[in-house]
Design goal:
By secondary structure, the chain is an alpha+beta fold. It has a single domain, classed as PH-domain like, CATH 2.30.29.80. It contains two helices and seven strands; from the N terminus they run βββαβββαβ. Strand 2 and strand 3 form a beta hairpin. This is DUF1508 domain-containing protein.
């Protein structure tokens, strides 16, 4: 089952990863200062992942592909892992769209 996993980073800030049913991370968040803002970020992912226009495709310096999921205000709310192929990246976007709306929330902070 897919899930949003909330954890603290080394600086003590909260972050979440959206994990697919196979436990693979498919989207990672920015850092949040409070649990409320982290939960708002998760709700924003659930809402904005439904619209393909909210996904921004990028190319890293080494040629790898990745995507950002943006909120309606243009702020990045999540970033993907790196992909070697366009088809792999497209599958990643489809996985976020499929899993974000049904994912449970697991707080391991």
């Amino acid at each position: 089952m897919s899930k949003f996993e909330i954890k603290k980073d080394k600086a003590g800030k909260l972050r979440f990863n959206l994990k697919a049913g196979n436990h693979q991370v498919i989207l990672s968040s920015e850092a949040y200062n409070t649990m409320a803002s982290c939960q708002n970020g998760i709700e924003s992912v659930k809402k904005n992942s439904k619209d393909i226009k909210m996904f921004e495709i990028k190319t890293a310096k080494d040629g790898s592909l990745f995507f950002n999921l943006k909120a309606t205000n243009g702020q990045v709310i999540g970033a993907s892992e790196m992909y070697k192929s366009n088809s792999g990246m497209r599958n990643g976007i489809a996985s976020v769209q499929k899993n974000a709306t049904i994912a449970a929330i697991s707080d391991i902070s």
